[in-house]
Amino acid sequence: MNRHFRITLRVLTSAIAILCLLAPSHAQTAKHAAHKPPAATPGASQAELDQIKQTIAEQHTQEQQRLDALQTENQQLGQQLKSAEEKLAQASEEIGRLSAGQIAPIAQLQSAVESLKSAEAATAGSLAKEQKLDQARDNPTALRYRGVTLTPGGYFAAESLYRSHAENAEINTSWASIPFDAQPMAHLSEFRVTARQTRLTLRADGALARAQVSSYFETDFLGSGFGASEVQTNGYSNRIRQMWGRVQFPSGWTFVGGQMWSLITTNRVGIENLAEQCPTLVDSTTFLGFDYARQVAVRVTKRFDASKVTAGFSAENAATVGITPANVPASVSSLLSGLSTTGVGALSNTTYSTNVAPDLIAKVAFDPSFGHFEIKAIGRTFRDRLDSTPAVAATKTTPAVPATPGTNNTLLGGGIGGAAYLPVFTRKVSYLAQGMWGAVGRYGATSTDVIIKPNGGLSVEKDLHAITGFETHPTMRLDWNVYASDEYLPRDYGYGLKTIDNTKCFIETGFSCSASTRNLEGGATSIWYRFYKGPAGTVQFGANYIYIRKNTWTGISGAPRGIESIIESSFRYYLP
User: Fold this and answer.
1) Which residues, other chains included, contact 266 with Cβ-Cβ below 8 Å and sequence gap of 6+?
2) Quick one: which of 140, 154, 211, 287 is 20 to 30 A from 322 by CA?
3) Handedness of CA 126, 132, 138, 143 (dihedral sign)
4) Strand (E) or helix (H) holding 157
């Protein structure tokens, strides 16, 4: 249609052009007729007309030919359009027939294709799982036994220590027993190597219908058994560090029983077993100022996920450490029982206290997005007995002494504290702080719970324990940590007496010192470097330097002191 229009337009344009040519010719002819002689005008005008007619005839012929060609082309296009309409009608009929009886087979075919795709995806997933299973069988991270997952762990350790003043102690330093400056042992240094801190663990995990159950066993070789010697075999007994069972419910309730870290121990997050935050020193007694115990307990905790709060309560095995000051008469101290009792049989090298009730500990932990915080409290019961005495008859030189009945002295005590563990720079630097005040003696390094009064009664020694520090991770392989701590014991009845004679505390010959410790203060720094950490386990080296100063209460002749510097190192291989 567009092409036909263009041709028609060309014809009209040509006709207009011809008319324009004719118009001037007629005017010129009339003009010539008015001014020229009549004899010359007819001949010139006729020749021009003939020429114009011939031109018009030729153009008309050409346009006619074009018009004929267009008509032929239009006829062909009409035939093609008709053929297309016929094919469209046939296609519509074919679609109708498919709609009537052939759509169902097509749908079945499409479904079969989708099933094949799903089967192919499932096969690929199965192959991937098989590959993972093969890899897990070749490199298992745990063992399966009757529906229980067993995970062995621990490490093998070769460690050394150097002390500037000898204590004749192993890798577990007794912070409160460092020698005074004038003591003979203070003039001797001490070097020792040991493998006793080698640790082996086994964890078992299973699932019940509505709970997760787990148990954990941990042991090392720092036991104080008979027959241990450094002369040839270096043989030492292993001991229980932890051995507990746990049941966890989806509701947030957890019940744990067995020997474990005390609830008073600071955690890194929540109140979870195996999530305790301990100073990372080589020494097995952690560090002074840090309150902890590993003892048999029954614990219950409740996690409140919405508020990121965990509350816990435990009843734990009790013990009492008492001190008898110099002002307690021998006639009284010889009659005291219960605070320190020697064990019997295989435990005859161990001392016990006769306890009234378990230690009761409560803790609330908060875990907001910016760190971990704790508030904790402890309640304890202490008891001793002043034995009865028989009557003594009068003599010529001494008056009669009446009999005295025995009496039990029972005392309640408690303490309170808090802790924080804060990430200063994410995964690079963390800050820790812990403090406790009250009857927390044996949970720290000073280990003083009660003071014996001159009459045989008891007084609670309210200690103050504190530790702070930074734990840093400059690289994925290197850790560097620093700590500062203090433990303070106040004067109490005969403890810290100003009238106590400390004269022999300052001489080596005949050294004898009963000075009362005022506080232990110290600092420590440690590094740990992991040479390898991967599927085969972890190989790492650690070293630390510790400085301790023991200060005493001033008595006659002054206040003696003791200073200790300790260098420790450890080479460990952790099981994968």
Assistant:
1) 276, 277, 290, 291, 374, 419, 421, 432, 434
2) 287
3) negative
4) strand 148-163
Put the strands of the sheet holding 450-452 in their side by side order: 322-323, 450-452, 458-460
Secondary structure E strands in 426-516: 429-438, 450-452, 458-460, 463-472, 478-488
Tokens of 193: 């190597």
pLDDT tens figures, 260-313: 999 999 999 999 999 999 999 999 999 999 999 999 999 999 999 888 999 999
What are the sequence ranges of the domains in the chain?
2-101, 140-223+243-574
Cα–Cα dist 45/25, whole Å: 8
Answer with the residue of higher pLDDT: 398 or 160. Answer: 160
- 161 has pLDDT over 80: yes
CATH number of 140-223+243-574: 2.40.160.10
Q: Is residue 297 within 8 Å of residue 261, measured between CB atoms?
A: no
Q: Place 34 in a pLDDT band, splitting at 50, 70 and 90.
A: very low
Q: How far apart are CA 359 and CA 381, in angstroms?
A: 7
CA dihedral sign of residues 331, 335, 338, 343: positive
Diameter of the chain measured on Cα atoms: 204
Angle made by CA atoms 282, 287, 293, in degrees to the nearest 5: 100
Would you state the structure tokens that stand for residue 562, as one six-digit string? 């003791």
Where does 224-371 show beta strands of DSSP type E? 237-248, 253-261, 294-304, 309-316, 322-323, 336-337, 341-342, 351-352, 359-366
CA pair distance 514, 523, nearest whole angstrom:
26
- How far apart CA 327 and CA 497 sit, in angstroms, is 8
Q: Would you state the structure tokens that stand for residue 90, as one six-digit string?
A: 């046939």
Percent helix, strand and coil across the chain, each to the nearest 5 = 25, 40, 35
pLDDT value of position 119: 74
Distance of alpha carbon 29 from alpha carbon 22, whole angstroms: 11
| pTM > 0.85 | no
The answer for residues whose C-beta is within 8 angstroms of residue 141's C-beta and 6 or more apart is: 151, 576
Check residue 29 and give its pLDDT: 43
CA R_g for the chain = 51
H/E stretch holding 67 reads helix 41-101
31 pLDDT band (50/70/90 cuts)? very low
Paired tokens of 311: 């509350």
Residues 190-201: tens digit of each pLDDT: 999 999 999 999
Report whether pLDDT(560) > 90. Answer: yes
Q: In Å, how far are 1, 7, 73, 327 from 64, measured between CA atoms? A: 17, 10, 14, 146
Q: Residues 535, 250: contact at Cβ < 8 Å? A: no
136 DSSP assignment: H
